[in-house]
Design goal:
Elements (H helix, E strand, L loop, with lengths): L2 H12 L7 E4 L17 E4 L8 E9 L2 H9 L20 E9 L12 E4 L4 E2 L2 E2 L13 E4 L1 H4 L7 E3 L6 H5 L1 H9 L14 E6 L16 E6 L2 H14 L2 E3 L8 E7 L3 H8 L2 E10 L8 E4 H6 L3 E5 L20 E5 L4 H12 L6 E6 L2 H17 L3 E6 L6 H12 L4 E6 L4 H7 L3 E9 L8 E4 L1 H7 L2 E3 L6 H12 L9 E6 L3 H10 L5 E5 L9 E2 L3 H4 L1 H4 L10 H11 L1
Parallel strand pairs: 10-11, 10-13, 11-12, 13-14, 14-16, 17-18, 17-20, 18-19, 20-21, 21-23, 24-25
Antiparallel strand pairs: 1-2, 3-4, 3-8, 3-25, 4-5, 5-9, 6-7, 15-22, 24-26
Helix pairs in contact: 1-18, 5-9, 5-14, 9-10
Length: 567
Amino acid sequence: MTETAELKLQHYRAGDAPTVDNNRLWPLFGAGWENLGVDGGPIDTPMPTPGPDELLVRHDAVGICFSDVKVLRAGDKHPRIYRNMQEKPVVLGHEVALTVVEVGENLRGQYQPGDRFIVQADIYINGKSYAYGYEIEGGFERYNIIDQRVLNGDDGNYLLPVKPATGYAEVALCEPWACVEASYIVEYRTRWQDGGVVWLVGNGAGVQLGLAAGWRPRKVVLGVADAAFAEQVRSWAKVQGIEVSEADDGATPYDDIVVLGGDAALCEQVFGRLANGGVFNLVLDQPLDRPTAVDIGRMHYDHLSVIGTVASDLSAAYQPVRTQLKAGGKTLLVGVAGPMGQMHLMRALALPGKPGKIVATDLSSARMEPVKRRFVPTAIAHGVELVCISRDELDSDATFLGREKEEGGDHGYDDIVVMAPFASVVEQAWPFAADNCVINVFAGLSRGTTARINLNDVARRGVRYTGTSGSSINDLRTMRDLVESRQLPTNHSVYAIGGIEGVGDGLRAVAEGRYPGKVVIYPNLNKPLPVTPLTDLERVLPTVYTKLDENGMWTREAEDELLRVML
């Protein structure tokens, strides 16, 4: 190591003003790989200059997300893109770590060069999304302008400060990790929505309002056959001043839908009428005769909840839902070998309240091998039994599912997390659920995708389905704190690294599922570095390779050495 290299690193971390004349970036001019960059590579543009209320920032590290691939495939038909991309191209990349290098005159005193931040990508202005890496230029460029949309949006400032010693990659990966964390800290309603609209439908014989008699929706739509229950509702509503309608208008989205009685067809008919954040409650008097087809995509993206009870008190279903993994229990992780699946596994092993046993499954043994290499030693160190099962090592789907069932035992799994984006996988998971199991549908299945689930288990055994997508600024703040306190090692997600020239190949790698972990781009390396798996660093950058940890995972020390060598 030379003194010059160390000084370059020090100046880089300090955010000294750039001396370059040009910015380098990857524009996306529309749908398709042919519209990414110019002649298959990045372009140089004049260095941007911040206005008085703006910041010039340097992108230090950016993770490549499958969401980037979705924009590349959809172009300006993507729901977060509102402009003609041929006229004004998009710059992708929303998993970013950045450093301030120049401050507009009106912001001096609030910011200074060297300040480090991460960005909450979901930025809203007057309720409209201007997401980073979508409508706002993102991380696949060396420098960028941060304007008032980011600094003064609906939720205030979308920049979160980062401590100087924190690594760039581990900070950039807080964004996808926040989506994982958000799926475990969801707060579910334990009553009807205050001021909301409730639909009571079905038989209703023998059912009582119970605690619901103290709840305060704005309106109840009454579509029940039992005259005694209907009169109970009317009397309660009259006393409380709650509007009652005797007929569904066919269009109103309902905050709560309560199906009274075991009618699978009725459940399927009304489920689609839930509003975003809605709760579906099945009050079961007799078992349903078949699994029920529900929109599992909406459950994921629109945060729908499915609850139920066999008690005559319809309010009995509105119990708190356990969202954290059960301490000492059995957890099934389906589709674990991808980047997000590995994050769920890392979280299960790193935080307090660990399961006693984790069964991790994937289709490919080639993708599972790095999981075994990386995480079996960690599991042993933490006293957790980790079992890895690959479909291609078994002779049939039936054998594969049989192994999953066998590992769950007679008890079944206390938690099931589904990362594989297939309705069939969700359907295959629920027979393995223990009593009071939480099934987390994390996979991004599109709205309109139906899966048949056993609502009998929901009502009779307390099985709960949860589904989340995205994250809030509070989730991102939680992840930053966990990283800076070294409780969650986001660096363990890194599988390959590259310089800005590698963005195109990195996107293709993500689209093809080439790597079982994250690709992280360092846009400001001064020497070219194609996308390189960490396992190849021994040959390509041997001094960087020596700074990996004992399991071959990325570290802050390896990142520092990369910058010394490549700046």
